[in-house]
Amino acid sequence: MSIEVRQINKRFGDFVALDDINLDIQTGELLALLGPSGCGKTTLLRIIAGLETPDRGSILFHGEDATDTHVRERQVGFVFQHYALFRHMTVFENVAFGLRVRPKHTRPTDAAIKQKVHTLLELVQLDWLADRYPAQLSGGQRQRIALARALAVEPRVLLLDEPFGALDTKVRKELRRWLRRLHDEMHITSVFVTHDQEEALEVADRVVVMNKGRIEQTGTPEQVYDQPATPFVYQFLGDVNLFHSRVHEGWAEVGGTRFAAPEAGDKAVIYVRPHEIDIQRIATDKALAGVITHVRLLGATVRLEVNVAAGDPVEVELTRERYTEGRWSVGEAVWLSPREARVYAG
Ligand code: ATP
Fold it and tell me: Which of 22, 107, 147, 320 could form a disulfide bond with 102, CB atoms 3.0-4.6 angstroms apart?
């Protein structure tokens, strides 16, 4: 089912939580709402769900205005960060719950419920836990059960609010791959909220980057990462070094490396990702001189922090091989030159 978000505005007192939000969500799409804490992601998700009313604007489900449709009639399934499983019910009963509370004339028979619950538990690969209680499950297992429970009522839309937020990194990574595979099997239109850019880029078909109640950019993971529409998107999607420069004849420069500058203004800010910087030991007039002050191992890559004469320390990321070959160490004098950059008016 497609969802259209039209000119949605929402205030809490004087505070503008959502400022004119427009968004088209395609049928069967897995969409991520990504942004820092407080940017309005959850509020937007709750408005789509029908748990919150907008001050202005409308929500269309499959082309029909659903703004005033009650949450129960929207046929949405939810999964929240803090697993809201019923503690006194077994896994089986948790998943069956949404079917059991249906009005009598639409309620499936006990046999049909039993079969459906087992099918769903197989889908989330936890059929063997049917008789356990939530307290006897791991965090990751609880989230998968929460998802099975949300799917039981055959929602037209699945809404997930930081579904893996409370879990440790390794389990999170497993679950997001699993969510992607599950979505590829089910094709339910799904929207999930996250503040973790890696999670959004890895899992979603499209990413909506939000900031201060507005949408900064909507695009595929490649688009938002490779062609950020605004400095905010660039900074939010990965670590970045900023260099301030005066603009001369259409160029801005870092050390001696020149980049085409935007037309507006005589100042520019040059954004360079840590892995886009070359480091060497030989001085050239095209490079920025500095001294290595920290070395941090990040697994497959290594981050060097380099103090330069003017401006903030520069982060340089090398592959493990380049780092080992180069034998870089703290205290060494080095020269830096950016290979790539994006330049915005400063
Ligand atoms: P987080 O990742 O921290 O959950 P978020 O992007 O999901 O952040 P929202 O929960 O949508 O942000 O909140 C947006 C802003 O609106 C926040 O500043 C929040 O304090 C405020 N807000 C949300 N709900 C209410 C409410 N019921 N009353 C007053 N202010 C609210």
Answer: 107
Per-residue pLDDT tens over the stretch 99-112: 898 888 888 999 99
Q: SS3 sequence, 99-162?
A: HHCCCHHHCCCHHHHHHHHHHHHHHCCCHHHCCCCHHHCCHHHHHHHHHHHHHHCCCCEEEEEC
Domain 3-235, CATH 3.40.50.300 — does that match? yes
pLDDT above 90 for 202: yes
| Ligand 1, CB within 6 Å, residue ranges | 12, 17, 35, 37-43, 195
Centroid of chain to Cα 160: 12
Tokens of 105: 């004339």
- Select from 59, 103, 61, 95 the least CA-distant residue to 79: 95
Ligand 1 atom at minimal distance to the Cα of residue 18:
14
Taking the centre of ligand 1 as the mean of its atom positions, its distance from the CA of residue 177, in whole angstroms, is: 28
Closest CA to 226 of 185, 189, 276, 262: 276
**Domain boundaries along the sequence of the chain:** 3-235, 239-345
Number of the ligand 1 atom closest to the C-alpha atom of 35 = 6
* Amino acid letter, 181: R
Banded model confidence at residue 275, pLDDT cuts 50, 70, 90: very high
